[in-house]
Every structure is written in C-alpha cells, then in structure tokens.
Amino acid sequence: MIRYLLITVFSLLALTFFRAIMGVVQKAVVNEVKSAMGGEDAPPAAGPNRSSGPSAGPAATTLRKCVSCGTYKPEGAMIRYGSGDKSIFFCSAECEKKANA
Length: 101
Ligand SMILES: [Zn+2]
Fold this sequence. Notes:
- The structure is a single chain.
- The chain is mainly α and 101 residues long.
- The chain folds into two domains: 40 residues; 45 residues, no CATH class.
- Helix content is 54%, strand content 12%.
- A hairpin with a 6-residue loop joins β1 and β2.
- The structure holds zinc ion (ZN).
- Zinc ion binds next to loops.
C-alpha cells in the first residue's frame, strides 16, 4: 500500500517536473521564434537594399510585352515608343517593322 502511495506521489512529482520543463522549453521556443522574427524584421534593411540594388534598373528589368509578337522581355532590352503608361514596346527591330508595316 505504501508502495502504491509512493508511486502515486512520485508520478505526480514527475508530472509536475515534466510540466515545468515543458514550460521552460515552450518559453525558450517562443523566445527563439520571436528573436527569429525580429531577425527577419531587422533585415528589412536588406529588403529595401534588395529593391534598391536593382533600383538602378527596376524599370529596366520590368517585363514588357512586345505589342507585335507578344514576347515578354525586360523593358531595358526593348524598343520603346512613347512614355509612361502609354508606352508600347517592341522586342526587336523586326517586330517594330512588322507593326509599322
Ligand atoms: Zn516581338
């Protein structure tokens, strides 16, 4: 009988101990996740950097559709007519000729 009691008490203690550990682990995980997210928030500097890197050519790297053949190419590589939203693009001089023909 005493043995049963001891086992019960021991298992309760073990359970309490286990819960305590789980609590600590959980806190550690939460902290890690928070710091990881903070770490991701920190490099937004890198995000803008990424966009500012190509910022020299974000327009040049924008894909444009050739109005003649429908091919998509970076804007910088295309022949451009007009400006702003009304611009039209040709992928090559050939397409330009086709459109003018
Ligand atoms: Zn074309």
